[in-house]
Amino acid sequence: MKITFYGHATFKIVSDEGTRILIDPWLDNPKRPAERDIGPYDLILITHAHGDHLGNVFEIARTAATEVVSIHEIQQYLLARGIPNVTGMNIGGTYRTKGIIITMVPAFHSSSIQEDDNIIYGGDAAGFVIQLENGKTIYHAGDTGLFYDMKLIGELYQPEIAMLPIGDHYVMGPREAAKACELLQPKIVIPMHFGTFPLLTGTPQAFQEYLKHFAPQVEMKVLEPGETLEI
């Protein structure tokens, strides 16, 4: 499988069978690579409704060939605005599509959409556990604080790779993310949601220092925007 980081919390996953998955499709984020990869994609997963995660979904999911997966409230919002193929689910549920098994798990964060002066409820924020056709499992935590039930995610789904926010202020900081690794026990962790804005002060260097204490067996892979990790 190949995992490409596009900055902030945006990742492309290409399975060994060629299924193309995009998570939190904000391709125009300030840390984006020069080249924009607008697909086509088989699946787009959206963790919550904030604009830095809904991102460019209206541009990328313009045809029914791309299936968007999100919580129910975001599904209804996107369908009402013309996205042709959106599947809604909810936390705790599992959905099978295109050979991929997707489980929606909790995230501790807010979720809303702002249109002019109106705030639209976006349902609960979530993370995703994604099992590819060959059984390899990835956990994208979405925007979240640390919560102890991450231990259950680790025990139930045994993700090989975890994508965790480390930026602090709006999400976990490096210390909390390292504790999350202790609870999850992945083989590899990829930090995300850091450095995009000045308020996101958490760094991979600080994260690595905390990992030495909480989860020294977990290997950190820092991806630059546009860089691909092949596993």
Give the biggest beta sheet: 7 strands, mixed
**Radius of gyration, in angstroms, nearest whole number:** 16 Å
> How much helical structure, as a percent, in the residues?
10-25%
How many helices? 6
How much strand?
Answer: 25-35%
Instruction: State the secondary-structure class.
Output: alpha/beta
Q: Would you report the number of β strands?
A: 16
Distance between the termini: 5 Å
What strand order characterises the main sheet? Answer: 6-5-4-3-2-1-16
Q: Secondary-structure element order, as H and E?
A: EEEEHHEHEEEEEEEHEHEHEE
Gross morphology is globular
> Which regions have little confidence, pLDDT < 50, spanning 5+ residues?
none
Mean pLDDT: 98
How does this model look, in words?
With 231 residues, the chain is of the alpha/beta class. 20% of the residues lie in helices and 29% in strands. The chain is built from six helices and 16 strands. It has helices at residues 51-54, 57-60, 72-80, 150-157, 174-184, 204-214; strands at residues 2-5, 11-14, 20-23, 43-45, 67-71, 86-89, 94-97, 100-106, 112-115, 118-121, 126-131, 137-140, 161-165, 188-192, 219-220, 228-230. The strands form three sheets. A seven-stranded mixed beta sheet has the order 6-5-4-3-2-1-16, covered by helices on one side. A seven-stranded mixed beta sheet has the order 7-8-11-12-13-14-15, with helices on one face. Strands 9-10 form a two-stranded antiparallel sheet. Strand 11 and strand 12 form a beta hairpin. Helix 4 (150-157) runs parallel beside helix 5 and helix 5 (174-184) packs across helix 6. The longest helix has 11 residues, at 174-184. The mean pLDDT is 98.
